[in-house]
Write a structure and sequence with these properties.
Blueprint lengths: L13 E5 L26 H10 L4 E5 L7 H10 L4 E6 L8 H9 L7 E6 L13 H12 L3 E4 L6 H10 L5 E3 L15 H9 L4 E5 L13 H15 L4 E3 L12 H11 L5 H15 L16
Parallel strand pairs: 1-2, 2-3, 3-4, 4-5, 5-6, 6-7, 7-8
Helix pairs in contact: 5-6, 6-7, 7-8
Length: 303
């Protein structure tokens, strides 16, 4: 897969990053401590669809949350029965010798056509160079060969390795989740801003305007707090390589769905109409090659 192209005009609103989980099926072992207690319940497809449709969302991409092989088939099955979820970013063990076979098998499952990408919880890896380990690079090449993209969930200190991985596997599109988790609460821009710019210099990279509210002060953030970071990724990637994601339900720790979407709209309000269209839908639809037979160059009513 090559780098992103120019975005078509008039694409509908796409939420390029949200999650679903059912605690009656599987624990989410990352939800620990009193601060995350509001997330310790099930967040199911019906609730997301009601919330997103009320906001005018026409399509979405659901993203894995745990490094468990069973989760991805479950998400694919949910996508197959949803009129809203158009893509699944799943998980598989990139270091496994049979990763290519596993990706092919996932494609054959119910809903397998919705598999658009792979992600690993790199932010939890103690080795800051995990992304450029030989066995990981081999796995990333298999992801590219399967026609999928790779979502990067990394901390700022892991961005240099992300740059090296993007250089080592130029045929793969890397999608930076949550703008690389900038330190918004502290108000610091560097070294994060420089590392993001280095990643954006690679043509095979895209960035999500997502997860910013939970990197800010949960109880008292404003769009003004987010703006320096949004402006940084806008300058670095440009609108045709930037996509909106709600990060629902994690975002609810700091803001409701309407507030997250309103903040994103405000942060890109100075862009030209076709540039806003790119960030709010066209970039995601093109990058993830969202299925469903829609003409993504035409807006949907209410979107």
């Amino acid at each position: 897969m090559t780098g992103p192209e120019t975005a078509p005009a008039g694409a509908p609103l796409v939420d390029a990053h949200h999650h679903l989980w059912d605690l009656s099926v599987r624990d989410q072992d990352w939800i620990t401590g009193p601060e995350l207690a509001p997330l310790r319940r099930s967040f199911l497809l019906d609730e997301f669809e009601r919330t997103a449709r009320a906001a005018g969302v026409a399509a979405s991409v659901v993203v894995q949350t745990v490094t468990v092989a069973e989760e991805t088939p479950e998400l694919l099955a949910l996508a197959s029965g949803s009129g809203l979820v158009g893509g699944v970013v799943g998980w598989t063990d990139l270091t496994a010798p049979a990763v290519a076979d596993t990706l092919a098998e996932l494609r054959e499952l119910p809903g397998g056509a919705a598999l658009v990408g792979i992600r690993h919880q790199v932010q939890g890896e103690p080795d800051p160079d995990w992304l450029v380990l030989p066995e990981v690079l081999r796995g990333l090449r298999a992801v590219a060969a399967a026609g999928l993209v790779y979502d990067l969930v990394v901390l700022p200190k892991q961005l240099p390795a992300a740059v090296r991985a993007a250089e080592a596997v130029p045929e793969l599109v890397f999608v930076l989740d949550h703008a690389g988790k900038p330190p918004i609460a502290s108000g610091e821009l560097r070294p994060w801003a420089g590392e993001v710019a280095a990643l954006a210099a690679r043509p095979n990279t895209v960035c999500k305007l997502s997860g910013l509210v939970t990197e800010a002060d949960w109880g008292g953030w404003s769009s003004a707090d987010l703006r320096p970071y949004a402006d940084t990724v806008l300058r670095a990637f440009g609108p045709d390589r930037l996509m909106f994601g709600s990060d629902w339900p994690v975002c609810t720790l700091a803001a409701g769905y309407p507030e997250v979407l309103a903040a994103a709209r405000e942060l890109i309000s100075g862009l030209a109409p076709d540039e806003r269209t790119a960030v709010l839908g066209a970039t995601a639809a093109r990058t993830y090659r969202l299925p469903g037979g829609r003409d993504w160059s035409r807006p949907l009513t209410g979107s």
